[in-house]
Amino acid sequence: MPQTETPGTEVSPRTRLRWWTEVPLILLVYCCYTAGRLIARTDVSGAVDHGLAILRFEKALHLNAEHPLNRLFTREPWLGVPADFWYASLHYVVTPAVMVWLFRSRKDIYRAARTWLWTSTFIGLIGFTLLPTCPPRLLSAGHGFVDTMAEYSSYGWWGAEASAPRGMGGMTNQYAAMPSLHVGWALWCGVMLWRYGGTRLTKAAAVAYPLLTAIVVMGTANHYFLDAAAGAAVMGAGLLLAPYVTRGVDRLRARLVPGTSVVTAGSQDTEAPIVSGGCQTSPGERIPRQRKPRLGSGAEPDAAPSDAGDGAPAAAR
User: CA–CA distance from 169 to each of 44, 161, 162, 176, 301 (Å)?
Assistant: First the structure.
């Protein structure tokens, strides 16, 4: 029996994933991400205004968790230093590691997961462009924040300007704080580990990693609470849009690559229903070339259709 498709869905040939095509693609997306952050640079005063507006809004709603966490991380180096290492490095390590794990062990869902991550990242770039935001650590000292990255820069490879390596702070956009893709990517990793990890340890990591990342980005004064919430919202939007992105890519591939096609199930509505390969029914038939017998007023219920011929009325007694 042929498979029936939901109207409006597309059928495309399954493409075999290769690591030597995936790695350049991932590097290309990361380069676009980095370039987008640099292009999004704007005047400092506008970014500061946005940051202060977020801070005032949080205080009005009693959501200001950044100050107590930042004071804790500043007062306790045994918390602040690991938090800075966490912020500066883990999103570069954990996210690719989860992608490699999915590629090797769960290829059936890898493409959908990858598309979700990329779609959300590009939505985040739109946020950086439309709403440049000064992070708490770059506000004036009167607002009560301490830049822990600068405070503990002697412990790590990062400089006082940003989490980038020393001397490379000018190559990053320090006002790309809204949304927090640190939190967004960590949430993506958590969902993948929770759904496809088979042990209690992986499920515990699935919960702990995004939660601790949200605490770290606020405690190091790199993001506001609303930045973290926006990072989660961006991942939700990317999850909703990812199927449409996948279908659009499939259609584009069908146009550019010979031998591939995209079939829309809704286009088959005008054709006769398929019963078996190459065999179609006529109107009123249940199976090919056999009509449903119609009983006349004097016809016997058990009369075979062959007694009077195909489609002819039954003989009366």
Answer: 16, 5, 5, 13, 90
Between CA 294 and CA 302 the distance in angstroms is: 12
- For residue 284, what are its two tokens? 């009123």
**Residue 227 tokens, joined:** 């930045």
- Distance in angstroms (rounded) separating the CA atoms of residues 109 and 92: 22
Task: Give the containing element (helix H, strand E) for 275.
Answer: strand 274-276
Distant-in-sequence contacts of 25-33, Cβ < 8 A, 24+ apart? 26/96, 26/99, 29/118, 29/121, 32/122, 32/125, 33/121, 33/125
For residue 287, give the 3-state DSSP assignment: strand
* Residues present in the chain in total: 317
- Asked whether 111 and 246 are in contact (CB, 8 A), the reply is yes
Query: Is this model's pTM higher than 0.90 or not?
Result: no
Distance CA 186, CA 94 (A): 8
Q: What digits encode the pLDDT tens for the residues 175-185?
A: 888 999 999 99
